[in-house]
Amino acid sequence: MDKIQLIFFFISGFLVSRLMIKVRLPHRIVFWFIGKKNLSLAKILFYLIAISAFLSFFIPNAITVLTLLPLLELLRRSYEKANGPSRSVATMLALATIYGANIGGMGSITATPANGILVTYAVLNDVAGIQHLTFASWLVWGIPLVIIFVCIAALILCLVLRPWKYQKNQIDLPFDDEEAHHPFQKMTIWITVFYFLTSFILSIVLMQLPDRIFFILVISGTLTLIFIYFLFLVPVKGDNKNSSGRVLLKIPDCYNELPTKGFIFVGIAVVLAALLYAFNFHENFSTWSGWILKLGVPTFALFFCIALTTSFSTEVLSNTAVQVSFFVMALPLAQQLGLSALEVLTIITLSSTCAFMSPIATGVNGLAFGGVKGVSFTRMLLVGFIMNIAGALLLSSWVLNIIGRLYGQY
What is the span of the domain harbouring residue 201? Predict the structure, then answer.
């Protein structure tokens, strides 16, 4: 039932992203960050990862990518105007968005469906310590984890692809301040804030009052309907009070300029994951992981193996299939080896969103890879491979030393 609320949030988040694009808010963001500041390409990449991660705290990471794709195209055009075409720069822009969107989902318990699956599975199986896994306690370790991971991702991206090699001249934006303005931008910002706050509050209420789930879902659905009515049917004037009122969105605004190629990659990922799951490939991954866990290696090495196996498995299977199949083997193995079941489930969950190599690994990867012109597949594989290893090291250390100490040994 709680997934119904996520559907409501996804609908509202998608409409917010389309409104942002219509009122040229990405133009304004780019102009605000770059403008006449003459920022280096490395700083732009860092800002892009951070913005993508921040947005993914509140809206589905796929929606984050859809919102930022016009921004990426503007940055690519800005670079090419100053320095000429470069597949490396297009690749860096796409990867920065992928990394930020995937990383941001780790920061909040409501950020991705994977986190909700963790809570549901732990509650149904009465995992020790689950009562301590709350919205607030997740933020205590989730926010610092995202901040550190964002910095690591920016460092890896810059060290491997060396953006300073590709910026010979100052980046000149292909538009000025006037072109970045729209009379509905301020209203769009307030609408976005309203969406974030209502989603945030309703998520907390649903977690705190699970026995009132139907009532909360009615409120969530009603707000979504009101939101749709306001966006499509209510004329507003915006900053220009002398003009006649206009509706904020029209039906064509919902599908114009969507990345068709990106959705093709998402479709390929879904079909491939379904085929692999139908032939029980996930059971092979679980068996292999279980064999590794029985070798008697130190706890950190065990956690590292779990994280690494989960992230690389997600490159060819859907993260939900990997997460659930690994959950099945995690509880008995945790009991057998004397590990905290909650910690094992947590590292599997975090690692299942930590797949950075292939376009078919996650919807985020497919949308960004297909939505940005000229992305290099080989460079994506190379940097993604390093990111997967770095992510496994960070997550295993974080779960063992931070989350383990926060929740104690259960």
Answer: 2-254
